[in-house]
Amino acid sequence: MFDLNTLPGGGGLVLTGVAYGVFALFIGGQTIGARTIEKSGFLPRCEQALVLAAKQDAPDLQTPVPTPDCNSIVGIFAGPDGKQLCNIMEPLFQNPLAGQIEKQNQKLKDAYNARLKNAAAHASSSCKCAVNVQLEDRVPWALYAGSARLITASKIRNLDAELFAALSSPVCAGRFQ
Q1: pTM
Q2: 44 in Cβ contact with 38 (< 8 Å)
Q3: Residue 69 φ/ψ region, left for φ over 0, alpha for ψ in the -120 to 50 degree band, beta for the rest
Q4: Pick from 74, 105, 107, 120: CA 20 to 30 A from residue 134's CA?
Q5: What pLDDT sits at residue 38?
């Protein structure tokens, strides 16, 4: 059997070192990691980036389905005189599809707004998932916390890149889409 009293400094020093390492691995590293990520301002930037990405991926709603009317039909063929003709013959050009086209345009706008609301609602959860994925690797955070932040692993030095990589990882990427 191994006797701790034969070590230089005694067994108490070894047990204290082991206890410090376990504390850094399970408690200190996670606490320091969460505070470091919070201090970096990742969560608000992440949520903003996800909402912006949803806006950029959305279809262009600046060109809705056109509503044909007298000016658009007669104006092509009659030119400036078409306006006068349309003023006289407006009742003949009542488009029965105009209401349906307006409804379709409204549905497109509603779908766009619903998509943005959905992206905004789930952005926070996806960003927190990325933080949790980053904190799962306990050893770099334990070294960082246990060494009084003197030893900084590359995973912590490149924290933003690692967090956004975790955001697009399979664990978090398809979470709410």
Answers
A1: 0.63
A2: no
A3: beta
A4: 120
A5: 92
